[in-house]
Amino acid sequence: MSREAFVNGQYKVFDSAMVHVEDRGYQFADGVYEVFAVINKKIVDYDGHLNRLFRSLNEISLKSPIVKESYLFHIRNLIHKNNIQDGLIYLQITRGVAQRDFKFPKNVNSSIVITAKSISMENYHSKFENGIKVKTTMDLRWKRVDIKTLNLLPPVLAKQKAVESGCDEAWMVDTDGYITEGSSSNAWILIKDKLITTPATNSILKGITRTSLIKALKKNHIKLLAKRFNKNDIKKANEAFITSATQFVMPVIKVDNIRVGKGKVGRYAHIFKNAYMEAIQLK
Fold first, then answer.
1. What pTM was computed for the model?
2. Is 148 among the residues known to form the active site?
3. Which domains does the chain have, with CATH numbers?
4. What sign for the dihedral angle of Cα 147, 152, 153, 159?
5. What is the DSSP pairing of strand 239-244 with strand 248-255?
6. What is the reported pLDDT for 220?
7. What is the mean pLDDT of each run of 10 residues along the chain (283 residues)?
8. Catalytic residue among 42, 63, 81, 148
9. Is 68 exposed, middle or buried (0-12, 13-18, 19+ CB in 10 A)?
10. 10 Å Cβ neighbour count for 225?
């Protein structure tokens, strides 16, 4: 079955789904995006992702190209058209097509692209059992990373550095030496019975998976501390994790040359994973 995408009001075969060469997303990264996980043909935490999408649009003064109620219809349609059992939906909105100029164009319609792909949940479960390794890098991003924009070059470079070091993810470090977040995830460490994660300020993206896990932890009476942490704190950690729409809850067994805990997936990893899976909203 051919993959299909939704591009500016039309469903097109994936390989022929195109955008204009002067789309401002291509030339300026002038746009925002969201990634929705799909489990058993259901969208994970749809309301949280859509609300964040509209917050991002508002923060950069970008008008939605379709009414809010239409997003669910098109996403579900793509899940059906692409026969997605488990996988991901990628949604991107840009300021549209206009002659290249830094200032906002007038009377231009914003552009929308939605794509879908299948990803086996078995891949996630297999990686979870082994855990992942993390490489620290300098955080080179702009000061409004709480907005989910297309400005992704610094995280791309961080991720590439991690891959070249034999790691799966990068944890970015600010000028004070504190971990902000991963290149495409939020970061967590567990010290004794306290789970620590960076506070939700302009220095991180407030992950929807992060939010769902926090709700799950409160129901399970796990002690959570919103606090900055550094590499010295990681040395004290019993376990560590990342969370994201693509990785859900994923244990971290090594950060640079620091072996986390015993260098193996700890018992809390399974507790947090199960709690998260029970807390998500499927639509």
1. 0.95
2. yes
3. 4-119 (3.30.470.10), 124-279 (3.20.10.10)
4. positive
5. antiparallel
6. 86
7. 90 94 98 98 98 98 98 98 97 98 97 97 96 98 97 98 98 98 98 95 96 93 95 98 97 98 95 96 96
8. 148
9. exposed
10. 12
Distance CA 82, CA 65 (A): 23
Which residues 6+ apart lie within 8 Å of 272 measured at CB? 195, 213, 216, 217, 222, 241, 249
- Structure confidence at residue 1 (pLDDT): 54
Determine contact, residues 252/133, Cβ cutoff 8 Å.
Answer: yes
Of 245, 248, 277, the residue nearest 89 (C-alpha)? 245
- Helix/strand/coil percentages in the chain, nearest 5: 30, 30, 40
Look up residue 162 and give its two tokens.
């991690």
Report the alpha-carbon angle 131-264-156, nearest 5.
30
Strand intervals (E) in the chain: 4-7, 10-13, 31-39, 42-43, 87-94, 111-118, 132-138, 169-173, 179-182, 186-191, 194-197, 223-226, 239-244, 248-255, 258-259
Please provide residue 235's backbone torsions phi and psi, each rounded to the nearest 5 degrees: -65, -25
Place of tokens 């082994």: 130
Angle at Cα 200 formed by Cα 227 and Cα 271, nearest 5°? 70
Q: What token pair was written down for 119?
A: 């990803």
